[in-house]
User: What shape does this take?
Amino acid sequence: MKKILVVGAGTMGSGISMWFAQQNISVQLFDIDQDFLQSSINRCHQLWEKLLAKGKFSSDDLEMFKCNLQPLNDLKSADSETDLVIEAIVEKLKPKVEVFNTLHEILKGHCIFATNTSGLSVQEIKKSLPLNRQKNFIGLHFFNPATIMKLVEIVTTVDQKEIASNLKTFFDKSGKVPVRCQDRPGFICNRIARNFYGEAFRYAETFNKEIFLSIDHIMREVGGFRMGPFELMDLIGIDINLAATTNVWEGFECDPRFAPHVIQQEMVKSGKLGNKNGEGFLNKEKLEVSPFTDMAYRTQVITCLSEKINDSTELVIELSTSSIEKKVNFYKVLQSKKVKVISDLSTYSKESFELLLKHLDGSIAYKFQNNNKVEVLLKKDDEKILSAIHQSLDITPVAHIHPHGHIFPRIISMIFNEAKIAEDEKLASSDDLDLAMRFGLNYPQGPLAWLKSFELNDLKKVLRNLPSYNKLESASRYCLAEVFNEGK
Ligand SMILES: NC(=O)c1ccc[n+]([C@@H]2O[C@H](COP(=O)([O-])OP(=O)(O)OC[C@H]3O[C@@H](n4cnc5c(N)ncnc54)[C@H](O)[C@@H]3O)[C@@H](O)[C@H]2O)c1
Assistant: This one.
């Protein structure tokens, strides 16, 4: 590949152009707004100069990059020898189709036409092009900032194996992480990530900043995500996130598992869009991890209810598989002796959870520990319980006080479930699904590899016990967890 043309000099078009220029490929950049085009080129130069000052490359490199990136003032003057066009203009079908049809008249037959659309159907754009161009039409979905984010989703329709494979080889060699996927709403990342936000909203139920802070804290500290869903929505823009959700939801025929939540709709309606206008869910507030005290209860960890409880024991961590009835009787005895008890309620239904929690001081999502960290739900602040967990189980507890259930098991199970459904649909290969989530959205692990560190049965139980499960099942398109039921 020697020459490319990028149409649209906004956030994505300028980043994509910079990346190609850095690969020593000649780039023509066009925008309908000529003043904006020049200021965009100037911004690219300034960014490079900053990187030069930081020693990221030499001044010879800088000259080469600048020389490779040239403004194009009239689309009709595009270089007819261009090998690849990447369209990154406004997210609307009609202007995109117009751009491609104009370029079809100018560019030679070998030139690949690619759209960077996030939300439109690649097939929909493709079918509006002349037949002899359609075979060279593809989706190339870059992530922002395109110079830094490694992922490129190569979105193919039919008969494009060769182009896709050539582009994959090119991106592989150039240090990007290309993945191939089918043309389905949200492609890979925007689709599988939906429940990172959606399940967080369903957990919170109503606007409650304390709960938002806890969800973010748990997803960062236990899940290992760089940001929690609410701070991330504030950063992306609540309106942008809602648009992506609505797009995927509509693309899946309004399947309830992708439904936009009333909380986000209300935020956008009232003009609260996140960090960009200073009115978001959290406005950059976040909970910090506090150090443990040295003080801990004298603790016994038991896996069988018949184990003898010592007279000196102050806290029992009960991890048995006994029936609910037996557990309740056991807790009642301990309660009468003023011994504190916590158990793992992470996989119980709402009713059983509520029944058991009445007799407990908290719940530890022991089955959902991740990176040696575990979510602990307390009925009230009690640092000595946290220290006791740390000392007795050699695991780091991360606590919150929202007695309507565990957070991490719910959100992560929904993400795994979506990744499984996508794998089943052959949206992409399993490896590509995982790579996409790691390199497009910085997930700590790819979901399909990650879910192997949990018991499938525990994931199934969490999914079946979600408050939304029956609603989703009645929608009869997807039965959550049924993918797992097939024994995969
Ligand atoms: N912003 C992101 O994070 C992101 C990520 C991946 C993909 N995308 C997709 O990339 C595309 C561009 O998004 P963006 O965020 O860069 O938008 P943007 O608003 O920053 O830039 C769009 C640019 O296109 C120009 N433009 C509009 N109509 C044009 C036309 N007919 N011909 C030439 N130029 C035209 C505008 O003047 C503007 O400079 C969209 O399809 C979007 O869905 C965006």
Remarks:
- Residues 34-53 form the longest helix (20 residues).
- The radius of gyration is 26 Å.
- Residues 7-13, 30-33, 36, 88-91, 95, 99, 116-119, 141-142, 144 surround nicotinamide-adenine-dinucleotide (CB under 6 Å).
- Confidence is low (pLDDT under 50) at residues 473-481.
